[in-house]
Structure formats: structure tokens, C-alpha cells
Amino acid sequence: MSKNYIVAHAFLLILVSGLGVLGQQPMQTEMEALLLLKKFLVSQNSVNRGVYLGWNLEENRSSSPCTWMGISCDGNHITSIDLSKNNIAGTMFRNFSAFTNLSYLDLSNNYITDLSDDLKLCRSLRHLNLSRNMIEGEVNLTGMDKLEVLDLSNNRLREQPRFGDCENLKVLDLSMNYLTGKLSNESSIESCMELQIVDLSGNSIEGSLSFTFGRYRRFSMSSNKLSGNLPTWVFPKNCSLNVLDLCENNLTGEVPKNISNCKELMELNLWGNKFSGKIPDEVGFLSDLQSLILGDNNFLRDIPKSLPGLSNLTVLDLSKNNFGDDIQEIFGQFTKISYLILYGNTYTGGLHSSGILKLQNLSGLDLSYNNLSGPLPPEISQMLSLKVLALSSNRFSGNIPQEYGKFPRIQVLDLSFNELEGSIPASFGKLNSLLLLQLVMAEPCHNQLSGKIPAELAHIGKNATPTFMLNKFDGTKTTGLGDCASLTRWMPETTIAVLTSNSRNYCTQFWDIVQRGFGISPLCSDDGEVYGTPGYIQLSGNQLSGEIPGNISQISELGYLNLGNNRFSGKLPIEIGLFPSIQYLDISKNEFSGEIPMEVGNMKSLYFLDLAYNNFSGDIPNSMSKLTNLAQFNLSYNPLITGKVPSGQMTTFTKWSFLGLPLLQFQENGTPIAPPSELESEERAGSSFSGRHVFFISFPIFFILSFLYFSMFCDISKCCFRNTTICKT
Ligand SMILES: *[C@@H]1O[C@H](CO)[C@@H](O)[C@H](O)[C@H]1NC(C)=O
Ligand SMILES: *[C@@H]1O[C@H](CO)[C@@H](O)[C@H](O)[C@H]1NC(C)=O
Ligand SMILES: *[C@@H]1O[C@H](CO)[C@@H](O)[C@H](O)[C@H]1NC(C)=O
Ligand SMILES: *[C@@H]1O[C@H](CO)[C@@H](O)[C@H](O)[C@H]1NC(C)=O
Ligand SMILES: *[C@@H]1O[C@H](CO)[C@@H](O)[C@H](O)[C@H]1NC(C)=O
Ligand SMILES: *[C@@H]1O[C@H](CO)[C@@H](O)[C@H](O)[C@H]1NC(C)=O
Ligand SMILES: *[C@@H]1O[C@H](CO)[C@@H](O)[C@H](O)[C@H]1NC(C)=O
Ligand SMILES: *[C@@H]1O[C@H](CO)[C@@H](O)[C@H](O)[C@H]1NC(C)=O
Ligand SMILES: *[C@@H]1O[C@H](CO)[C@@H](O)[C@H](O)[C@H]1NC(C)=O
Ligand SMILES: *[C@@H]1O[C@H](CO)[C@@H](O)[C@H](O)[C@H]1NC(C)=O
Ligand SMILES: *[C@@H]1O[C@H](CO)[C@@H](O)[C@H](O)[C@H]1NC(C)=O
Ligand SMILES: *[C@@H]1O[C@H](CO)[C@@H](O)[C@H](O)[C@H]1NC(C)=O
């Protein structure tokens, strides 16, 4: 609740006390009910408490409950209770109806398990927010006829709610539940005549569409199991849609021309269906359209001539439509768009002839997963607004042009899985905003990058803040690099399985987060504040050689560094211990030698460390016992390593982390520890994410899931908080 709000109510209170209204019967009763509510909440969670602890009659005998945190009043009634994120656990309070004039109730972000029938007796309730709880069971809203806003998103509902009298309902959010079946007409949202904003995404609702979108302003049913065609009548004459999101369903047939009835449409997302035929010319008549996302369908390759004329269009996603051949020339005419997403189309050419290299105002260009070849075009570096450039998984060859060090705003540069050779240009040190650099060339039969890491690389991402700030205030959703498939390229191997089971909307949300500078795995303090924006550098699978420059630790806030599978040699620089925020470090399969510097123990945030297949020698440093976050560790096949496995964290790893180390001593009753059955499953898990070598996961897989959880799925403004209710893994 904002300070202004409290001040306003304090003012109101003075007014009210002045009139001598305070102490009248209704307020007295409601104050008692509040104290019962407090008592109830305290009894429900004896460990963690919320602001209600401050609801205290003794201390503030003369004050009104209207000054209490989370409470607002109007006249002599309590009208609003906001206990969002207050560690409320278990069943719901059964006497909210004691607050006879309650119109606003926010219990979101708690651990509430059911809905109380008593809510139906709250006849004044207009706004009910129960989002992000663990509510199961039936929802019957009959009787709550004043309700205008209902948010039950991110719960565990299986049955579609019964609405009863919903004539005032305007906003309904049931996204991220387990709703199944067809949208039944008894519960039917259609009977809610005032409904304007509907979100049913992230459920398993099936069947074909049986109602029109006409009366809604925003309608989202992404990630369900809708099938069949879009009938022409879903877009009636008086359609007033602003946003339509049907992505990730199983819809087929053509997109009806009648879509032009929805003249106010700003966002259309049909990604991930089986639409076919021509993209209707009528889409080009939607003059307010800002975002057009038609990827992962089977559209024909003619793009309507009317589309480039849409002056508000900023995002165009036509990924994964099997276009093939040359990039269509028409894309060169989209001079006003910011994001052009064409990955996964098996294009073979047309990079120059299409004219897309002249789209100087592009912020994002994704041409990955195509079949483009020849040298990397230096012209791209003239796109001075470029923030995301993905050219990976093509057959580009030759050197990386020096000019690629000139992007003033670039944050994500992915040139991996091509046939590039030569060295990493020193000019990359000028990429002030770069947060993610991916240059993997893993196919051994193809060309690879070679040479040393230029010392200049240490300056990468040095001054990213201005770009991030710009993006934070810019407000436009980027859609970044499309779907989860392109995202998994970026993630540590361990996360792929989890990610691919998740929906596109999460993945695009992720890219949005990256562009706002929160990095791939935001660092959060205990109270959930994001304080770090760790960067990501992935150079594995090349033939890079020489020593790692000591100044590499100057790369600001590097979170992920993968140099594995190269030819690096020499000692690991002691500066490695200066990476305060590094979480993932893989230098396996190189030719590093000498002792492992004891400074390794200073990388307190490390959860993944792979040193396997090198020539390290000397004692395993005792400082490693300080790596208390380490969940995955591999030292195998450094046959000259001596000494004793340090106590503490290190002893939680089994022999799978220490293979081929004949001179190493184990702690008595230390490693290896796990029983055989567990080892087997670990081996399987290990080999599936790390290819040729085996990791032991010391913490349960839970650790990784929760790591992922807050790196991916939390609402970034409230990062690192709570349970897994929105992570349906
Ligand atoms: C609800 O609260 C009111 C006011 O405190 C009280 O009179 C009533 O008995 C309570 N009802 C239940 C079912 O607890
Ligand atoms: C008592 O009231 C004062 C102001 O009226 C407030 O600042 C204080 O936080 C209240 N104490 C509690 C425990 O609610
Ligand atoms: C409180 O609700 C009652 C009916 O439930 C109504 O008569 C009264 O006007 C309301 N009071 C306020 C201040 O809204
Ligand atoms: C409900 O609460 C959640 C979390 O506090 C918030 O993100 C969401 O916007 C709220 N819903 C509505 C409809 O206000
Ligand atoms: C829903 O609630 C109303 C009022 O409490 C009740 O009459 C009706 O039977 C309930 N419907 C179902 C299907 O439980
Ligand atoms: C619900 O649909 C069935 C057939 O699908 C129909 O017979 C029935 O009349 C509909 N009920 C309402 C209230 O529209
Ligand atoms: C749209 O038109 C239909 C009839 O053609 C009408 O029933 C409906 O109320 C209209 N909707 C709006 C939002 O005007
Ligand atoms: C849909 O468009 C067709 C022609 O394309 C037209 O005959 C029909 O009346 C339109 N329907 C609506 C509801 O606008
Ligand atoms: C999509 O529909 C096809 C038939 O049209 C069906 O075979 C397939 O299983 C459906 N896929 C999903 C994910 O529902
Ligand atoms: C673009 O959108 C603005 C409002 O955001 C609107 O006023 C304008 O008419 C739109 N442009 C066109 C060409 O319709
Ligand atoms: C690029 O954007 C600038 C400012 O937004 C604008 O003035 C310029 O005309 C745009 N260039 C093109 C080719 O559209
Ligand atoms: C890419 O091009 C190569 C050579 O022309 C061809 O063999 C391969 O099938 C193409 N791949 C795709 C996905 O089109």
C-alpha cells in the first residue's frame, strides 16, 4: 500500500474522529473481526508472519484500524484488505463477511489452499485477487454479483469455475491453472456481459472456439489445447479487441479475413498453431497493430503487400514457417519495425537482396536456425540500434568482421553453430552493453575459432546500464528471440529439459528480462531484491588457445563462463577468485596445468564448476570447502592432482566427481557415499546433460529447479520468492 494511500487514510481518520464517528458500532465490530483475522493468521503460520502482526489494539487503543497496514476504510466500514505476500498459509479465513462493506480483497502471493464459502456473503466485494496461491477445488461464484475483478491465476484449479451472476465482471484471470475440458456453456464466461479482459492461458482447455471475441478487449488463451478452425464469426462487425493471444494451441485452417473487423487490434499472437494458407491482406488494414506474431505455423510465403504500410508495427515474428529459399524481398520494406524474427525458416540466401540489412532502425534481428551461408555481412554493424543479433545455427563462414565490435547498444550477440574461423576480434572489447556472448562452434568437422582471447575482452559489457535503463523505460515487449528452442541454446545444459517443457510466453518474458539488464540468472538478496545482472560468455567447442588473461575477471558481473573444450593452457589465473557473481564456470577439456589456485574458494556464488580433463597438478585447495553453493562439481581426469578432498561441501560429492584421480585421498567416511541405486540414476542424469563426462548432482535436482525457477519464472520485480505454484514442472 503506498504511502500516499496511508496518508490519505490517516487524514480521513482525523476527519472521521473529528466527527465523532469513531467508536460507533460497525467499526467496533469490524475491528474485533480484524483481531480475529489476525489471530487466525498467526495460528496458520507460526514461523513467518506478515504486516498483520502490527494490528495491535493495546498499543494504539485510541486509533482506528483504518490506520493499520493493509486496511482502508470508508466512513465507518472497512472497505479494503490487502494482505498480498504476507506468508498466509493453509485454509482461508472463514469470516470475511464480517466486513460488511468490503469491496477490495487482495490475498495474492500467499499459500492459501481453498476458497471459503463465506466469500459469497461478501456482497460488496468488487475486487478479489487470489493470484499465486495453492487453491484447489470447486469455484462457485454464485452470489458474488458485484464482482468486477477476479484474479485466480497461478493456482491449482482443475474444474472450470461457475460464475452464476457475473453481470458486473470485467476482468477475469484464470491463467496458469489445471483447467481441462471444453469451455462449458454453463459456467460460461459468455454470460458475463461486461467482461472485457479474459486470461485463460496456461491451462489444458480443449475443443473448438464456440464464442466470438467481439466484446472482449484483451483475450488470451495461449498454451491450451484448442483445435479446429477460427470461424469467420469469431471476429464480428463490432469487434473491439486490442489484444488476442491464441499462441500454442492446435488451431488449423486459414485466418479469416474478417479479422479486419477488429480495427483496434494492437497485438495478434497466433504463434505455435497449424494455421495455413495466405496471411490475409486484411491484417494490413489493422492500422493500430503493433505486434504481429505468426511464427511456427504453415503460412504460405507471400507476405501481404499491405503489411509494411502499418506505421505502428514494431514486432514482426514469422519464424518457423518453412519459407525456405531466399528471404522474401518484402521484409526490406519494413522500415519501421524494431524486431524482425525469422528464425527456423531454412532460408538459403537473400540476405542482401531482401534489403533487410538496410533496416537501420532494427533493435532485434533473429535469423538463426536457417541455412544461410557465406561470410558474415559487415553491413549489419550499421544497424546502430541493434540490441539482439542472432545469426547462430546457419552456415556462415570466414572471420568475424571487426565491425561487429561497433554496435553501441548490443546486449545479445549469438554467432554460434556456424563455420566461423579466425580469432575473436579485439574490437569486441568495445561492446559496452554486451551481456550475452555466444560463440560456440561445436562441430569438429567444421571450422572453429582459434587464437587467444584478446585482453580487450575484459571490457565487454563495461557500461551496460544506460542501455538497460533505456529498455526499462521503453516499455515495449521485445519478444526477443522467439521461442524456448532458441533460449535453450543459451542455458546451461542442465536446464534444457526443464525449459523445453515450458511455454513460449515464459521464454519471451525471459528475453524481455535480459534486455532490461537482469541477466540470465539474476542475483537476488534474501528479501528478493535484484542486485546483479550477471553476464554470460559461452566460447566452448572452439580451438581457442593460450592463457586466460588475468584481467578477464574485470568483466563486470559475469555469471556464466564456459571455455570448455578448447585448447587453453597455462595456469588458471588467481584473478579468477575476483569473480564475485560467477555461478557457472566450465573450463573442462583444455590443457590447463599447474595448481588450482586457492582463490577458487572465493567464488562464493558458484553452483557449477567443471575442471575435468585438464592437467592440473598439486594439492586440491582446501579453500574449496568454502564453496557452499556448489551443486555440481567435476575434477575428473586431472591425474596429477594430489592431496585430500577438503571437508565440508566437497564431501557431498560422490566418486563421479573424482574419476581418474589416482593420487587423491578421500576423507574417511567421506566420498563416495551414495547408495548404488541413487548412483545409477545420477549417472543417467549426468550423462544426459553433459555428454561425454559424468557429473554428480550433490543436491537433489530440486536445487537446479529452484535455481531455474528464479532465473526464469519469477516476476522479476519480485524475484526469488516463493514456491513452485507457477512452475508446473
Ligand atoms: C464473524 O465475525 C462477527 C464479528 O466479529 C461475529 O459476530 C460472528 O460470530 C463471526 N462469525 C463466525 C462464523 O465466526
Ligand atoms: C500505532 O499508531 C501509530 C500512528 O498512529 C503508528 O505509527 C504505529 O505504527 C502504530 N503501531 C502499531 C503497532 O500498529
Ligand atoms: C455499507 O453497506 C451497507 C449495506 O451493506 C450500505 O447500506 C451502506 O451504505 C454501506 N456503507 C458505505 C459507507 O458504503
Ligand atoms: C493480483 O495480484 C498479483 C500479484 O500480487 C498482481 O501481479 C496482479 O496484477 C493482481 N491482479 C489484478 C487483476 O490486479
Ligand atoms: C453454487 O452456489 C450457489 C449459491 O451458494 C448454490 O445455490 C449452487 O447450488 C451452487 N452450484 C453448484 C454447482 O454447486
Ligand atoms: C449449452 O450447450 C448445449 C449444447 O452444446 C445446448 O444444448 C444448451 O442449450 C447450451 N446451454 C446454454 C445455457 O446455452
Ligand atoms: C455486437 O453486436 C452484436 C449484434 O450484432 C450485439 O449483440 C452485441 O451487443 C454487440 N457488442 C458490442 C460490444 O457492442
Ligand atoms: C466475414 O466476411 C465475409 C466475407 O469475407 C462476409 O460475407 C461475412 O458477412 C463476414 N462476417 C462477419 C461477421 O463480419
Ligand atoms: C493436434 O491435432 C491433431 C489432429 O488435428 C492431433 O493429432 C494432435 O494430437 C493434436 N495435438 C495436440 C498437442 O493436441
Ligand atoms: C498508431 O497508434 C496511435 C496510437 O498509439 C494512433 O493514434 C495512430 O493512429 C496509429 N497509426 C496509424 C497509422 O493508425
Ligand atoms: C529511424 O528512426 C528515426 C527516429 O525514430 C527516424 O527519424 C528515421 O526515419 C527512421 N529510419 C527509417 C529508415 O525509418
Ligand atoms: C542446407 O543446405 C545444405 C546444402 O545446400 C543442404 O544439404 C541441407 O539439406 C539444407 N538444410 C536445410 C534444413 O534445408
From TrEMBL:
<dbReference type="InterPro" id="IPR013210">
    <property type="entry name" value="LRR_N_plant-typ"/>
</dbReference>
<dbReference type="Pfam" id="PF08263">
    <property type="entry name" value="LRRNT_2"/>
</dbReference>
<keyword id="KW-1003">Cell membrane</keyword>
<dbReference type="GO" id="GO:0006952">
    <property type="term" value="P:defense response"/>
</dbReference>
<keyword id="KW-0433">Leucine-rich repeat</keyword>
<keyword id="KW-0677">Repeat</keyword>
<feature type="signal peptide">
    <location>
        <begin position="1"/>
        <end position="23"/>
    </location>
</feature>
<dbReference type="InterPro" id="IPR051716">
    <property type="entry name" value="Plant_RL_S/T_kinase"/>
</dbReference>
<dbReference type="Pfam" id="PF00560">
    <property type="entry name" value="LRR_1"/>
</dbReference>
<feature type="domain" description="Leucine-rich repeat-containing N-terminal plant-type">
    <location>
        <begin position="29"/>
        <end position="74"/>
    </location>
</feature>
<dbReference type="GO" id="GO:0005524">
    <property type="term" value="F:ATP binding"/>
</dbReference>
<keyword id="KW-0472">Membrane</keyword>
<dbReference type="InterPro" id="IPR001611">
    <property type="entry name" value="Leu-rich_rpt"/>
</dbReference>
<keyword id="KW-0675">Receptor</keyword>
<keyword id="KW-0812">Transmembrane</keyword>
<protein>
    <submittedName>
        <fullName>Transmembrane signal receptor</fullName>
    </submittedName>
</protein>
<dbReference type="InterPro" id="IPR032675">
    <property type="entry name" value="LRR_dom_sf"/>
</dbReference>
<keyword id="KW-0732">Signal</keyword>
<keyword id="KW-1133">Transmembrane helix</keyword>
<dbReference type="InterPro" id="IPR003591">
    <property type="entry name" value="Leu-rich_rpt_typical-subtyp"/>
</dbReference>
<feature type="transmembrane region" description="Helical">
    <location>
        <begin position="694"/>
        <end position="714"/>
    </location>
</feature>
<dbReference type="Pfam" id="PF13855">
    <property type="entry name" value="LRR_8"/>
</dbReference>
<dbReference type="Pfam" id="PF13516">
    <property type="entry name" value="LRR_6"/>
</dbReference>
<dbReference type="GO" id="GO:0005886">
    <property type="term" value="C:plasma membrane"/>
</dbReference>
<dbReference type="GO" id="GO:0051707">
    <property type="term" value="P:response to other organism"/>
</dbReference>
<keyword id="KW-0067">ATP-binding</keyword>
<keyword id="KW-0547">Nucleotide-binding</keyword>
